[in-house]
Specification:
The complex is a heterodimer. By secondary structure, chain A is an alpha+beta fold. Chain A has nine helices and 14 strands. Chain A folds into three domains: 103 residues, no CATH class; 168 residues, no CATH class; 140 residues, no CATH class. Chain A has a four-stranded antiparallel sheet. The chains are: A alpha+beta, B mainly alpha. Chains A and B meet through helix 2, helix 3, helix 7, helix 8 and helix 9 of A and helix 1, helix 2 and strand 3 of B.
Chain lengths: 486, 300
C-alpha cells in the first residue's frame, strides 16, 4: 500500500534525474573538442522496493522512481592499454626515421656536393699529375683537393657528432619532462583517491591523469594498470615509477661524449637506485640512435677514411718525389699518429686515422711522389716518370677501395632509411586505427547528445505532466470529495 | 562501430595530410627535376647514380688525357719529320762528297761545314721542349735530351736504364704511350753510331772516302730507325683517335644513363601531379560536405 504522496515523490526523482541527464549532455557537448576527454553518462536506475522481501514488508511492488547518483566515464581499458603500446612504438619509430633522414642529410648524396664528388676530384687531380709529373700546377691541385677531401670527411664526422649531441640534449629535456609528468600523475592519483573515499566524482581528474599517462607512453613507453581505489600504477620497462601517490624518478646515465658512445652509451636509470630502465617510445628511439645507429655510421666512415689513407700512403711511399726522396704519407691522423723508424721511413698508425682526424700530411707540392723510379735507377738524376701517379689514380677503381666502400655505405644507408620510413608508415596506420577505436568508444557524438537531449527534455516534460496529473487527482480528492449536497 | 564527429574530423585530417604529402613529394620532384634527392628515395637508383657519376668523372678526365696525349704525339711526329728532312739533306751532301774527283778540298770542306751546321740544327730540334719537358728525353726532369756535344742526357733507353714509357690513360684499362726517347728515334748512343755521332764523323772524315762510305751506311741505319719511329708514332696516333671516339661514345651513354636514373619523366610527373591534385581537391570537397551537417541542422 503506497502513501498518498508517493506518486509526487516518484515524479520529483524523475524531474531531478532528467535534469541531471541534461546536465551531463551539456558537459559532453561542452567538451566535444577537448583532447583526452571521455564522454560521461548519467547512470539512471529505477529505485525498486525492498531487496529482501520480509513477512511484514509494506512494499506495494511498485518502484519509487529513478536515481541518477552516479556519472560514469565511458572508456575501454583494453583499448587504452593498446593505445599506450602503439603510441610508444610509433614514437620510437618516428625518432628512428628522423635519425636516418638526418644521417642522409649529413652525407648529401647523391649529388655534386658529397664526398663522392670530392673523391672523384682528387683522383682526377692525380691523373693530371700523371700527365704532367713535373708541373707544379697539377701538383698543387692534388694537394688542394686532398685537403678538401680530408676536410669533407672531418665535416661529415662532425655533423654526425653534432646530431649525437643534439639527441643527448633532447634526451635530457625529455627526462626532465618525464619526471614532471610522474609527479603530476602521483598528485592526480592522490586527489582521485581522496575523492573516492569522500564519494565525490573525479571523472575530469581521471581524464587529465590518463592523458598524462598516454604522453608518458609516447615519451618513454610507459604502461599503466588500474588500482581498486581508482588510482593507477605506471610502469616503465619493468620499473614502477608511480604507484598511488608514491613516485620513482628517472635519470640519464652514461657518457656525454660521442667518442664513448659504444663503450658507455647514454641510458635511463632510476633515481635513486641507478637500476637500468629499458625505455620505449621517443626515449628508446633516441637511445638507440646514440648507442647504435649514429656510432655505426661513424665507424663505417672512419673505416673509409683509414682505408683511403692506408691505400694511398702505401703506394705513395713506394714512389719518389720531385727531389728524388722517397714519398711520405699523404694522409695521417694528426699529431701522434705517425712514427719514424731508424731509416727515416714514416709510418702512420691507421687505427688512429679516423674521419674526424684525417688530414693532409704533405706541405709542399714537390713532396708528391709521382715517379716510380728511384734516383739510383735513373743513374743519379731525379726521375720525371708518372707511373706512381697513374697507379694512385687507378685506386679509384679498386673493389676494396674507399670509393667502393663509400658507395656501399650510402646504398646501405638508403636501404635502412627506406625501411625505417616503411616501418613508421605501417606503425602509423596501426596507431591511427587504435586511436579511432578509442575515439569510437570514448568520443562525444553530437548526434547522440542531441537525441539524448530530446529524450531527457521529453522525460522532464512528462514528469512535469505527472505532477500536474497527481495534483489534479488530489484536488479532486481534497476539494471535490464529500461535498454531496453542498 | 560508433562514429563521432571528432573521429570523422580526425580521419578526414589524416586523409588530407596524406594527400597533401603526396602532392608535396611530386612537387618536390618537379621543382628539383630529380627523382632521387636522398638515398632512401631509391637505394638501387642511388647506387647506379653514384657509379655513373664516378664513371663520368673518369671519362671526362680521360678525355682530357687523350687531348693532351694527341698534342704530345703530334709534336714528336712533326719534330722527327723536320729532322728527317735535314738528315736527308746531310745524306745527299755525303753522297756528293763521296763522288771522289768531282769535289776538290775546298768544296769538301764546305760540305763538312754544311754537315756540321745541319748537325747543330738537328741537335737543337732533338732538344725540343714540349710542356716544359724535353720531347726526346724520356722521363728526364732536365731541360734537354742531348748535351751540346751530342751526348744523350735524357733518362731511359740508354746508360743501362730501360725505356720508361710516358703514357696517357685513355680508359680505365688502357694507357697509350705518347713519347719516343732519343735512343729509340736517333740510335743507341752506346754504339757510338747514333745520329749525332754519325753526323759528327761525316763532317770530320769528309776527305776520307773509305771511312765516309762506312759512315753513310751508319746514317742509312739511323734513317731507317727514324722512319720506324715515325711509323710507330703514327700507329699510336691512330690508337688515340679510336680511344677518343670510344671515350666520346661512352660519355654519351653514361650521361643518358645518369639522366634515366636521376631525372624525372616530365609528362609522367605532370600527369601524376594533376591526378594527385584532383584527388586532393575531391578529398577537400568531401570533407567540407561531411563535417558540416549535424542533427542540430534538422531540429527546430
Amino acid at each position: 500500500m503506497s502513501s498518498t504522496f508517493s506518486g509526487l515523490n516518484t515524479a520529483r526523482t524523475a524531474l531531478w534525474a532528467q535534469q541531471r541527464g541534461l546536465d551531463v549532455s551539456g558537459q559532453n557537448i561542452a567538451n566535444v573538442n577537448t583532447a583526452g576527454y571521455s564522454r560521461q553518462r548519467a547512470e539512471l536506475q529505477s529505485v525498486g522496493g525492498n531487496v529482501v522481501p520480509a513477512q511484514y514488508a509494506l512494499s506495494s511492488g511498485l518502484g519509487q522512481g529513478v536515481s541518477a547518483d552516479t556519472v560514469t566515464r565511458i572508456r575501454d581499458a583494453f583499448l587504452e592499454g593498446r593505445a599506450q603500446t602503439e603510441h610508444a612504438a610509433t614514437a620510437s619509430l618516428t625518432v628512428a626515421d628522423t635519425t636516418m633522414s638526418q644521417i642522409e642529410d649529413a652525407f648529401r648524396e647523391p649529388g655534386a656536393t658529397g664526398l663522392q664528388q670530392q673523391l672523384d676530384d682528387m683522383w682526377s687531380g692525380w691523373s693530371d699529375v700523371a700527365n704532367h709529373p713535373t708541373e707544379p700546377g697539377g701538383r698543387s691541385e692534388v694537394l688542394q683537393r686532398s685537403a678538401t677531401l680530408a676536410a669533407g670527411l672531418n665535416t661529415t664526422s662532425a655533423t654526425l657528432d653534432q646530431q649525437w649531441e643534439h639527441d643527448l640534449d633532447s634526451m635530457g629535456t625529455l627526462v626532465a619532462d618525464v619526471n614532471a609528468s610522474i609527479t603530476a600523475i602521483a598528485n592526480y592519483n592522490q586527489a582521485i583517491s581522496r575523492a573516492a573515499s569522500a564519494g565525490t566524482p573525479s571523472n575530469e581528474l581521471a581524464d587529465k591523469r590518463d592523458a598524462l599517462v598516454l604522453s608518458l607512453a609516447d615519451q618513454v613507453g610507459a604502461t599503466s594498470s588500474q588500482n581498486d581505489d581508482g588510482t593507477v600504477q605506471v610502469r616503465i620497462g619493468g620499473a614502477t615509477v608511480v604507484n598511488g601517490s608514491s613516485t620513482l624518478a628517472l635519470a640519464l646515465a652514461g657518457g656525454n661524449d660521442p667518442a664513448d658512445a659504444t663503450t658507455d652509451p647514454p641510458r635511463l636509470v632510476t633515481a635513486p637506485g641507478g637500476t637500468p630502465v629499458r625505455a620505449g617510445g621517443t626515449a628508446d628511439g633516441l637511445l638507440t640512435a646514440m648507442a647504435t645507429t649514429i656510432p655505426a655510421y661513424k665507424t663505417k666512415l672512419d673505416g673509409i677514411a683509414s682505408q683511403l689513407a692506408g691505400q694511398l700512403n702505401t703506394l705513395h711511399q713506394q714512389g719518389y718525389d720531385l727531389d728524388g726522396a722517397p714519398g711520405k704519407p699523404v694522409f695521417d691522423g694528426g699529431a701522434g699518429s705517425t712514427s719514424t723508424d731508424a731509416a727515416g721511413t714514416i709510418s702512420v698508425d691507421l687505427s688512429k686515422v679516423t674521419a674526424a682526424t684525417i688530414r693532409l700530411a704533405l706541405t709542399d707540392v714537390r713532396q708528391l711522389a709521382a715517379a716510380k723510379l728511384s734516383p739510383v735507377a735513373t743513374g743519379g738524376t731525379v726521375s720525371g716518370d708518372h707511373q706512381m701517379a697513374d697507379a694512385i689514380q687507378q685506386l679509384r677503381l679498386g673493389t676494396t677501395g674507399a670509393d667502393a666502400g663509400y658507395r656501399e655505405m650510402i646504398v646501405g644507408l638508403g636501404v635502412e632509411a627506406a625501411s625505417a620510413t616503411g616501418r613508421l608508415t605501417a606503425q602509423s596506420v596501426i596507431s591511427g586505427q587504435v586511436d579511432s577505436s578509442r575515439e569510437s568508444v570514448s568520443g562525444v557524438s553530437l548526434d547522440e547528445e542531441m537525441t539524448d537531449m530530446l529524450a531527457f527534455q521529453h522525460g522532464y516534460q512528462a514528469a512535469g505532466r505527472l505532477v500536474t496529473a497527481i495534483d489534479e487527482m488530489l484536488d479532486q480528492l481534497i476539494n471535490h470529495t464529500g461535498r454531496v449536497g453542498l | 562501430m560508433r562514429i563521432t564527429q571528432r573521429a570523422i574530423a580526425t580521419t578526414a585530417l589524416a586523409g588530407l595530410n596524406k594527400n597533401l604529402a603526396a602532392v608535396n613529394k611530386i612537387q618536390q620532384q618537379m621543382t628539383s627535376g630529380t627523382m632521387i634527392s636522398r638515398p632512401s628515395d631509391s637505394p638501387t637508383g642511388t647506387n647506379t647514380s653514384m657509379y655513373t657519376r664516378k664513371d663520368l668523372a673518369g671519362v671526362a678526365q680521360q678525355s682530357r688525357n687523350i687531348t693532351d696525349g694527341v698534342a704530345v704525339l703530334n709534336s714528336a711526329d712533326s719534330a722527327i719529320r723536320n729532322i728527317l728532312d735535314q738528315v736527308q739533306q746531310a745524306r745527299s751532301l755525303t753522297v756528293q762528297a763521296l763522288n771522289s774527283g768531282a769535289v776538290n778540298d775546298q768544296a769538301s770542306q764546305a760540305i763538312a761545314t754544311q754537315v756540321a751546321g745541319l748537325r747543330e740544327s738537328v741537335l737543337a730540334q732533338a732538344n725540343e721542349v714540349v710542356q716544359g719537358r724535353p720531347l726526346f728525353g724520356g722521363v728526364s726532369t732536365g731541360t734537354a735530351a742531348y748535351s751540346s756535344t751530342g751526348a744523350y742526357v735524357g733518362v731511359g733507353g740508354a746508360n743501362g736504364i730501360a725505356v720508361q714509357p710516358v703514357t696517357r690513360r685513355v680508359s680505365d684499362v688502357e694507357a697509350i704511350r705518347v713519347d719516343v726517347t732519343g735512343p729509340e728515334a736517333f740510335g743507341d748512343p752506346a754504339s757510338g753510331k747514333d745520329l749525332f755521332a754519325v753526323l759528327g764523323s761525316i763532317s770530320t772524315d769528309i776527305s776520307d772516302p773509305a771511312a765516309l762510305s762506312g759512315h753513310l751506311a751508319d746514317l742509312d741505319a739511323v734513317l731507317a730507325q727514324m722512319l720506324t719511329a715515325v711509323a710507330d708514332l703514327g700507329t699510336r696516333a691512330a690508337r688515340m683517335d679510336t680511344a677518343q671516339s670510344v671515350n666520346a661514345n661512352r660519355e654519351l651513354t653514361l650521361t643518358a644513363q645518369l639522366s634515366q636514373t636521376e631525372d624525372i619523366d616530365l609528362p609522367k610527373t605532370i600527369m601524376e601531379l594533376n591526378m594527385q591534385q584532383t584527388g586532393y581537391q575531391a578529398a577537400l570537397k568531401a570533407t567540407a560536405q561531411v563535417i558540416q551537417p549535424t542533427l542540430m541542422d534538422f531540429l527546430r
